[in-house]
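Field log, afternoon session.

UNIT: design team B
ACTIVITY: writing a sequence onto a fixed backbone
BACKBONE:
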C-alpha cells in the first residue's frame, strides 16, 4: 500500500502557545517550523510514503519545504478545514493510494515507526493512532476511495473512533504517538531523540 501523507502546520507565530512558560515567542516560532521540518523529513523517508502534502500559510516554512513536498495554502477556517484541503490534494495526486493525516509536531518521529503504523492502517478502511496521552490523534488514515473526514479537537481520538476509524494498537513508546503540546512533552521527545532541526532550536547536546 502506497500512502500520501498530509501534514498541517500553523503559522509559526501562532503555534504552541501552551509552551509560553518554557520558551520565548521567538523560540516557539522557530520550534514550530523545526518540528515540521523534522516530521516531514521522517515522513518522506518512510518506504510506503509516496508523496507528502503540507498545508500551511507560513511563508518561511513554505520556502524550506518547497522542494521536498507538495504545498497547499491553508484556506482558513481552522485545522479541519486545512486538512480537508490537504486530503483533497492527496486524492488528486494519487487516487490509488491511501490518504493519511499526520500531525506536524512529531520531532522525534522515526520513519520505521511511521511505516509500521501505516502497515497496520492498511488492514482497515479507516484507522486512527492516539497520541501519547490517549485522547488526541496523531495519525488518521483511510484506504483509497474511502472518505477521510478529520474531526480534530478535544477528545479527537474518540471522535474519530465514533466516525468509524479503528484505533490501532501502536506501542506507547512509538514515536508516532509523541507530539508536543506542553513543556513535559519536550522532555519526552528529547528522551526519544529529536531530529536535527528541533535539536538545534532546543540547544541540545
Amino acid at each position: 500500500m502506497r500512502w500520501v501523507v498530509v501534514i498541517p502546520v500553523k503559522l509559526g507565530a501562532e503555534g504552541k502557545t501552551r509552551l509560553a512558560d518554557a520558551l520565548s515567542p521567538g523560540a516557539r516560532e522557530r520550534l514550530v517550523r523545526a518540528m515540521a521540518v523534522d516530521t516531514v523529513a521522517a515522513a518522506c523517508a518512510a518506504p510506503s510514503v509516496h508523496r507528502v502534502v503540507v498545508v500551511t500559510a507560513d511563508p518561511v516554512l513554505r520556502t524550506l519545504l518547497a522542494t521536498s513536498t507538495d504545498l497547499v495554502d491553508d484556506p482558513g477556517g481552522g485545522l479541519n478545514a486545512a486538512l480537508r484541503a490537504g486530503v483533497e490534494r492527496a486524492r488528486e495526486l494519487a487516487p490509488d493510494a491511501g490518504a493519511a493525516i499526520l500531525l506536524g509536531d512529531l520531532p522525534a518521529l522515526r520513519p520505521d515507526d511511521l511505516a509500521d503504523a501505516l502497515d497496520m492502517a492498511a488492514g482497515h478502511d479507516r484507522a486512527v493512532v492516539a497520541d501519547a496521552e490517549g485522547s488526541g490523534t496523531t495519525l488518521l488514515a483511510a484506504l483509497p476511495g474511502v472518505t477521510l473526514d478529520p474531526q480534530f479537537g478535544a477528545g479527537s481520538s474518540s471522535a474519530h473512533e465514533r466516525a468509524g476509524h479503528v484505533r490501532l494498537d501502536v506501542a506507547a513508546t512509538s514515536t508516532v504517538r509523541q507530539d508536543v503540546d506542553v513543556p513535559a512533552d519536550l522532555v519526552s521527545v528529547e528522551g526519544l531523540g529529536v531530529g536535527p532541526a528541533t535539536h538545534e532550536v532546543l540547544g541540545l547536546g
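LOG NOTE: DSSP finds seven helices and seven strands in the chain.
NEXT ACTIVITY: expression trials, pending approval
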